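Quick one, tokens below:
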């Protein structure tokens, strides 16, 4: 028998799926309507040597507190970085943040495209001085980071393929799997192969559809730091009391990716 809590979560996920469909439809219309503007923006940013920002046509629809993390929303405008890592090696994604250091273990053999991208971006200083813009404390339990704009709409200007999704396990009757506390996974638009630079740190076991690449695991120190941020709750400016910017602001001062 399905419990009331399980039913509530299932309804929340179904609602999220409908929202994603509406968002994608709105984005498609916006992309067609703003094709000339978008092309001009890409040319200007490329000429200035800056990274092309994703999310030019961000949806303003309220977020569902039990939904998956808010992704970057614009299409890829450039190819992903050329493979430059040892695909058989393990790497550490290190985050020096205003709330403590977080070390994330990554296995390139399982998620080579994701690890390669994160090393490419970290080496460029892409994540430095960025804010973790979203905390959820109900339904799912994550802190989301990696957006250079700090709005949930930014990205690196390219998208990544989904990787190693089968390792997440077989979904239950509700269509979800458990992302264990300590997991670090990619945010996306809800569509396949749409990850960018945004990622989420799971600080408590969370049930989600198996469509978010889990590419790393936090160390105990990092997990405690994220839990402390979560304990302080959501600050002002969120879509709900349990979904919005963390009250205890988190800034990534420096990010590095090093081979173990």
């Amino acid at each position: 028998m399905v419990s009331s809590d399980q039913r509530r979560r299932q309804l929340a996920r179904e609602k999220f799926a409908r929202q994603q469909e509406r968002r994608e439809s709105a984005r498609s219309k916006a992309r067609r309507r703003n094709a000339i503007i978008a092309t001009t923006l890409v040319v200007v940013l490329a000429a200035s040597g800056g990274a092309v920002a994703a999310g030019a046509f961000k949806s303003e629809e309220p977020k569902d507190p039990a939904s998956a993390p808010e992704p970057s929303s614009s299409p890829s405008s450039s190819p992903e970085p050329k493979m430059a890592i040892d695909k058989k090696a393990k790497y550490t994604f290190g985050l020096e943040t205003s709330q403590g250091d977080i070390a994330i273990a990554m296995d390139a053999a399982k998620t080579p495209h994701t690890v390669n991208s994160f090393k490419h971006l970290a080496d460029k200083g892409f994540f430095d001085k960025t804010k973790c813009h979203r905390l959820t404390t109900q339904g799912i339990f994550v802190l989301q980071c990696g957006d250079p704009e700090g709005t949930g709409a930014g990205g690196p200007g390219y998208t990544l393929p989904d990787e190693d999704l089968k390792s997440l396990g077989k979904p239950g009757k509700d269509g979800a799997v458990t992302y264990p506390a300590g997991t670090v996974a990619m945010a996306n638009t809800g569509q396949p192969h749409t990850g960018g630079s945004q990622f989420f740190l799971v600080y408590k076991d969370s049930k989600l559809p198996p469509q978010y690449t889990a590419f790393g695991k936090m160390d105990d120190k990092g997990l405690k730091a994220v839990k402390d941020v979560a304990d302080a709750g959501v600050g002002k400016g969120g879509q709900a009391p349990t979904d919005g910017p963390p009250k205890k602001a988190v800034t990534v001062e420096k990010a590095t990716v090093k081979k173990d």
